[in-house]
Write a structure and sequence with these properties.
Blueprint lengths: L3 E7 L3 H12 L3 E7 L3 H9 L5 E2 L3 H5 L4 E4 L6 H8 L8 E4 L5 H10 L7 E2 L1 E4 L19 E4 L7 H13 L3 E4 L2 H27 L4 H7 L2 H7 L6 H10 L1 H23 L3 H24 L8 E2 L1
Helix pairs in contact: 4-5, 7-11
Length: 302
């Protein structure tokens, strides 16, 4: 029996497309409708079998819909919620896949205040540097984590429906307050992307860029892989979470200043100690990933 009779995906790219494909694979969805700003992308999604139907307006998209996933860049969330609000009816459940939550919550209260029982913010911790529906796959969320940040007004039954949908995709679901979510991911996701983009941009602008890139190997590849990510999406994420991100950037600049001082003073023993402490922390995190332990701090498993 399908968990969702009619699913609407707004933004049928890597995340939205993979969500639809995962539910299809588990036979948890009946009919999938795609809506978004790019007709070409939607037609590609339909050709690939990710969606069954293309909607050109929210009235038709939401007619009889049981579940909506908003998977567009977070900078579009407010306008999309405003457009869908007049056509949203009970018992449709709405969730999102945004990497920031404070701005999403503000839009929910501003645009969908009449539907607070069934609008549940969430964030799947999955993805890669690829983008577009052609990169979507049914196993993207397998063994990954999805963070749900419920509103006080949310109906527990609706939260449970969102949890079941992500679990059907293979994800484990945890709950976290939205403020904690944005601080955590500023440190472990948004800052690393900012650093990777910054490094590649710096090297690409140098007079000897071609020489530098021709000698870059695995270390550079591993560190900068995420700099191939979707620029618009990461622009929106960084701006939406800029306060927390600025704090993390300042913290990192202080760490770089410490390392610079160790180099200036030729302090090999302290530099090695710093590297060893980092190595141990990274090794411990790697073991936690293998063991499938929750590594997001004080979170509650739903």
């Amino acid at each position: 029996m399908a968990l969702i009779d009619k699913l609407v995906v707004c933004g049928v790219g890597l995340i939205g497309g993979s969500f639809a494909l995962a539910l299809r694979k588990k036979k948890k969805v009946g009919h999938v409708v795609g809506i978004g700003r790019s007709q070409e992308s939607l037609e590609r999604a339909q050709a690939l079998g990710v969606i069954d139907e293309i909607a050109t307006d929210w009235a038709s998209a939401l007619d009889g819909a049981g579940f909506v996933l908003l998977a567009m860049p977070v900078g579009q969330i407010d306008a999309v919620m405003e457009a869908m609000a007049p056509h949203l009816r009970a018992p449709t459940i709405v969730t999102d896949a945004g990497s920031t939550k404070h701005d999403v919550m503000e839009s929910i209260y501003r645009r969908l205040d009449a539907h607070l029982l069934r609008v549940i913010p969430a964030h799947p911790i999955a993805g890669n540097e690829k983008s577009g529906v052609q990169a979507a796959n049914a196993t993207l969320f397998q063994g990954k984590r999805t963070v749900v940040t419920p509103l006080p007004e949310n109906d527990p039954a609706a939260v449970e429906q969102v949890r079941k949908a992500w679990e059907a995709c293979g994800a484990s679901v945890v709950e976290m307050p939205p403020q904690d979510h944005d601080r955590v991911f500023a440190a472990v996701s948004h800052l690393p992307h900012l650093l990777a983009f910054g490094l590649v941009h710096d090297l690409a602008g140098r007079a000897n860029a071609e020489l530098l890139f021709s000698h870059a190997a695995s270390g550079f590849r591993d560190f900068t892989r995420i700099a191939a990510s979707h620029p618009e999406m990461w622009r929106d994420i960084c701006l939406a979470n800029r306060q927390a991100l600025l704090g993390e950037l300042d913290q990192y600049l202080a760490e770089l200043a410490l390392i610079r001082s160790l180099l200036l003073s030729d302090n090999g023993p302290r530099l090695e100690q710093l590297f060893e402490e980092a190595r141990q922390a990274r090794t411990k995190w790697g073991v936690m990933q293998v063991d499938g332990q929750v590594a997001l701090g004080d979170v509650k498993t739903l």
